[in-house]
Amino acid sequence: MAEFFDSLSDQHVAFVARQPVFFVATAAAETRINLSPKGMDCFRVLSRSQVAYLDVAGSGNETNAHLIADGRITIMFCAFDNPALILRLYGRGAPVLPQDAGWGELAAHFTLLPGTRQIFVVDVDQVQTSCGWGVPHMSFDRERETLSKYHRQHDEAVRAAKYAARTQSIDGLPVRNPTQAPQQQQQ
Asked: 43-47 and 50-56 as β-strands: parallel, antiparallel, unpaired?
């Protein structure tokens, strides 16, 4: 049976801290739904109603585009051990890039990884837990080093050129990247 909460409890925070992988889902009107797995110790609970995760450049920038266009985001954690549990965070998010105000304060919560592109900040408006009985038992072996190795092989100029070339999502929505001007503070 699903249970809903207005914010994260101590038990929720402890559960999140034990999970080596989480999943992020976003969409904007008339676009594909984007669903991405995340690992690499890049998730942080900032408060009972705010979380953030570090984003390393990969195959696309759909979450950035969707959050700029729509803002809605769902993050899901699931236990692959006992006790079985699924925890979803529903909220509204925004990308914070290295050139934006607030980057330094947010980045202090993380160990920046090669290829760090942005940090997504999510204001959580609802937490849901459910049984997770259909999730298989699996054990965590280790993080993959492939993405970090890839980024260590390229200098900043190569990365900047790749960022500058990626100006749209796969559905044509605009994306912000680290080569663009800082985002203006909203009044």
From this structure: antiparallel
Among the listed residues 4, 15, 12, 107, the one whose alpha carbon sits nearest the alpha carbon of residue 53? 107
Would strands 50-56 and 72-78 be described as parallel, antiparallel, or unpaired? unpaired
| Helix residue ranges, H only, 20-133 | 62-69, 103-107
* pLDDT on residue 187: 37
Q: In 29-187, which ranges are continuous DSSP H helix? A: 62-69, 103-107, 146-152, 156-165
Q: Please tell me the pTM assigned to this model.
A: 0.91
pLDDT confidence of residue 185? 53
Nearest-angstrom CA–CA distance, 110 and 43? 8
Which comes out higher in pLDDT, residue 161 or 175?
A: 175
Q: What angle do CA 93, 154, 57 make, to 5 degrees?
A: 15
- How many CB atoms are closer than 10 A to CB 5? 15
Neighbours of 141 (CB within 10 A): 7
User: Of 122, 128, 3, which Cα lies nearest the Cα of 55?
Assistant: 122
**Of the candidates 35, 56, 54, 36, the residue with the CA atom closest to the CA atom of residue 44:** 54
For residue 59, how many other CB atoms are within 10 A of its CB?
Answer: 7
Average pLDDT, the chain: 91
Q: Can you give the pLDDT at residue 150?
A: 74
**Contact (CB, 8 A) for 62 and 170:** yes
Burial class of residue 10 in the structure, from the number of CB atoms within 10 Å of its CB (0-12 exposed, 13-18 middle, 19+ buried): exposed
